[in-house]
Amino acid sequence: MKNLFLITSLLIGSVLALAGRGSKSALVLVAARSTEAHPIHATDPITIWCAPDNPQVVISKATIIRLRDNEKLEPTLNPTKKNATYTFGSPSINDAGEYKCELETPHGKISHRVSIYSRPIVHSHEHFTEHEGHEFHLESTGTTIEKGESVSLTCPVTGYPKPVVKWTKDGAPLALSSSVSMEGTTVILSSVNYTDAGTYSCEAVNEYTLNGKTSKMLLVVDKMVTVRSEYQWVYPLAVIVITLVLLTTIIIFCEWRNNHAARKA
Fold first, then answer.
1. What is the pLDDT of residues 30-57, one digit of tens each?
2. Are 212 and 128 within 8 A, CB to CB?
């Protein structure tokens, strides 16, 4: 009788301590450019799952909620009702993030978090090209401004976990000054001078662990800044004036030569 009571107590204790377990997955991406209208898709389907950590407990109902937008997904229970799964046939960058799995069982409700990871990518309507054929090193078309003007350089990256962003200029850590400041991950150049011209690089990094292996993922985005003189309009004007002076001089010389030849005749 004592042993029976002990076994019963252990079983009740295991139910009271019931928790969940679930999947961790990552999008397989072969490019780094995406937009809201045309989000990049992974090359492979992804199935997320969750289950009670006690394999003897069955599931009566399951719901998976995407925490980013609170969208509810209807998972499928396996025949034994001990596992709930949901498959993304063509997952996109918008599916990356954290999900809450809610399981109803005869012993109460279980809540567990599952994750879909994504390396950093650019998510923007800006135009970027691959740098020397490297799909995760991009460069913009560049920005040209006049001396004394201001410009903001954004780093439009996304990923899960949220990427950590740092900036460099011409390969060295970006130095802040009276003309170079930051708001969040945006670099602001104010009243620029010629020394502010160069290549500004946004480096976005995140890392996650799958199957015991930690991956550190890097994306680099280069933005060229060219500073031109506020008097740059003078140069083409000077060329035009010099050209007109030369043409006038040639015309006057030709007229003088023709008149001089006519008088001799």
1. 999 999 999 999 999 999 999 999 999 9
2. no
Each residue's pLDDT tens digit, 146-173:
999 999 999 999 999 999 999 999 999 9
Q: Which two tokens stand for residue 161?
A: 């976990």
State the pLDDT at residue 8.
43
Q: What is the CB neighbour count within 10 angstroms for residue 238? A: 10
Residue 213 sits in the same domain as residue 132: yes
Say how many domains are in the chain. 2
Q: Are residues 8 and 114 in the same domain?
A: yes
DSSP 80-99: TSS-EEEEESS-BGGG-EEE
CB 218 within 8 A of CB 136: yes
Residue after which a domain boundary falls, among 71, 97, 118 = 118
117: tokens are: 């990871």
Both 130 and 169 in one domain: the answer is yes
Give the CA radius of gyration of the chain: 33
Q: Is residue 49 part of a domain?
A: yes
- How many angstroms separate the CA atoms of 113 and 57, rounded? 18
C-alpha–C-alpha distance, residues 98 and 68, integer Å: 7
Q: What percent of the chain has pLDDT above 70?
A: 89
**What pLDDT, on a 0 to 100 scale, did the predictor assign at position 225?**
97
- The CA distance from 197 to 142, in Å, is 11
Match 């970006």 to its residue by tokens: 174
**Confidence (pLDDT) at 18:** 81
Domain span holding position 135:
124-228
Q: Give the pLDDT score at 108.
A: 94
